Amino acid sequence: MKFKKLDPGNYGSQMLDPNVPALLFIRNSTCNGVKAMLNFLTSTFVSEEFGSILLFEVDADDKAYLEFLKDQKITHVPTIILYNESSEIERIVGVVTIERIKKFLRQVF
Questions:
Q1: Fold (CATH) for 26-105
Q2: Which of 23, 46, 50, 73 has most Cβ atoms within 10 angstroms of its Cβ?
Q3: What is the pLDDT of residue 57?
Q4: DSSP readout, 22-37?
Q5: pTM for the full predicted model
Q6: Closest by CA position to 80, among listed 62, 98, 61
Q7: Burial 45-63 (b: 16+ CB within 10 A, else e)
């Protein structure tokens, strides 16, 4: 599973499928370690243990996302937001462990 770049002009309809949980990863260029961990988890843990999840990422340094970041009340990166049935379930701000992300994902599976 790979992260798709979120379309800044159409994020609502692109991300919020009521039938499939979504994970949104908001990062900047310094968040490569967290992205590597998320890639590992989503390619192994999520697909093997749980099934389908939509994966999106936003580069907080990209000016095209300024309005989106404001709408989502993003103040720090990395931020990981979990959605289910088109609603935000939880968000994690800052660097976290693999176990914390597994617990985070279990909320929707």
A1: Glutaredoxin (3.40.30)
A2: 23
A3: 87
A4: EEEEEE-TT-HHHHHH
A5: 0.82
A6: 98
A7: ebeeeeeebbbbbbbbeee
